[in-house]
Design a protein that fits this description.
With 393 residues, this protein is mainly β. It contains five helices and 19 strands. It has helices at 2-8, 27-40, 126-135, 246-256, 263-271; strands at 62-67, 83-90, 98-106, 113-121, 141-142, 161-165, 178-182, 187-195, 206-213, 220-228, 232-233, 279-285, 290-298, 303-310, 318-323, 334-342, 347-354, 373-374, 385-391. The longest helix is centred in the N-terminal third of the chain and has 14 residues, at 27-40. The chain starts with a helix and ends with a strand.
């Protein structure tokens, strides 16, 4: 279960600690602009999104760049599906241990790319990754629900993420006292989520790492803690027929993404019983002492707001993320002005609010019947994910 839950975020767009963040634009305007970009791709396959300016290299840093092996044409697994998840094994050719202080993911065809996740593969996991690659025709392999590599995504408290991208993403440069470790001889798995609502096209995206030598460095390792929560959004007017019935909707998501059992059900083993409603949350207990440096959230197009709280409801409560108006086009992490320490036994809660009314306003839902919305990996499905970036002592 834990491996699938981590990859779910399939998420998602983690920025890196120490970056700055722009003010959030209007929620609905941002959602509409994202849909417009996808619509434009049918006539302009090379459509791109605006990027933040490059940050110069700092002392001891260099860039390492990897690119998808060739131009990939996304295809849906079924005639009614609109999403393709594809994993690619890439070699950064690292001869010594390195620390990553920035990740710049550059979609080649931004209109088709919903999000990108880059994970590290330790040297001992390369053989399994190569088997997955060779067993699937063409470059890469289909990877709904996770890369399939044992060891990637098994621990929500210390995810193997190196970086991620979603609309609004660019290089997020870390503070100069932290970095993500990469071992010599290791590889990267780049999971691409393609949204086919834009039509056909090809993509050959690039990942550029900002690295420095680990030997002799005083930097602290930056870890990623993932906080998934259920989505249980009923149809309006208490409708329960067809896809407005939870059991029918869950079965549909399970079929489209070959999930057995469905992630929508597995999440309740982690977060508690099913309680339908627009607001959902999940609380997890901290296992190791750490210092939160930055926080991000991830939802899709029906998202309205997301928060992350430490020890919510107590006299020690601290809110570390508060996005009152969700903007799909700005999912970068938000660094904390004052890092927040956490200790074993502290509880961290993610809370999301979704809204069925947004489907009446967004082009992505045109022609779709209303449905009971649960966690799903498609663009018009939903997610609720908190992403906490922290250092350990």
């Amino acid at each position: 279960m834990r491996r699938r839950l981590l990859s779910l975020a399939a998420v998602l767009a983690v920025g890196l600690a120490g970056c700055s963040s722009a003010p959030l634009p209007d929620n609905l305007r941002a959602k509409s602009s994202h849909e417009a970009a996808h619509a434009a791709a049918t006539t302009a396959p090379s459509a791109t999104v605006s990027r933040p300016p490059d940050v110069p290299l700092r002392a001891g840093e260099r860039f390492v760049e990897v690119r998808l092996p060739g131009a990939y044409t996304p295809t849906a697994p079924t005639p009614t599906a609109t999403d393709d998840y594809r994993c690619f094994l890439l070699d950064p050719h690292l001869g010594t241990d390195q620390l990553v202080s920035g990740v710049d993911i550059r979609p080649d065809n931004a209109a088709l790319v919903h999000h990108v996740i880059v994970s590290r593969v330790e040297p001992e996991g390369i053989a399994q990754a190569e088997q997955l690659d060779s067993a699937d025709p063409g470059d890469g392999w289909t990877c709904f629900g996770g890369s399939g590599i044992q060891g990637i995504g098994v621990n929500l408290d210390d995810a193997d993420w190196v970086g991620a991208w979603a609309p609004g993403g660019g290089e997020r440069v870390m503070a100069d006292d932290i970095g993500i470790p990469l071992r010599a001889g290791g590889r990267l798995v780049v999971q691409m989520h393609y949204n086919l609502l834009a039509g056909s096209g090809t993509d050959r995206s690039t990942v550029r790492l900002r690295v420095s030598e680990a030997a002799g460095s005083r930097k602290k390792a930056l870890d990623t803690m993932l906080l998934p929560a259920p989505v249980e959004l009923p149809c309006r007017e208490n409708r329960t027929a067809g896809l407005c019935a939870r059991v029918v909707s869950v079965a549909d998501v399970s079929r489209r993404f070959e999930e057995r059992p469905a992630t929508a059900d597995l999440l309740h083993l982690l977060c508690g019983p099913v309680v339908p409603g627009p607001v959902q949350s999940c609380t997890r207990t901290v296992r190791e002492k750490g210092t939160i440096r930055a926080v991000a959230g991830h939802m899709h197009l029906l998202g309205r707001s997301i928060t992350v709280d430490v020890d919510k409801g107590t006299d020690r409560a601290r809110r570390v993320l508060d996005i009152a108006s969700w903007d799909f086009d700005d999912q970068g992490s938000i660094p904390l002005e004052k890092p927040v320490g956490v200790a074993p036994g502290d509880r961290i809660t993610v809370t999301c609010r979704h809204d069925q009314a947004l489907r009446d306003l967004l082009p992505a839902f045109a022609g779709q019947k209303e449905r009971y919305v649960v966690w799903g990996e498609g663009t018009t499905d939903e997610m609720c994910l908190g992403i906490v970036l922290l250092t350990r002592p």
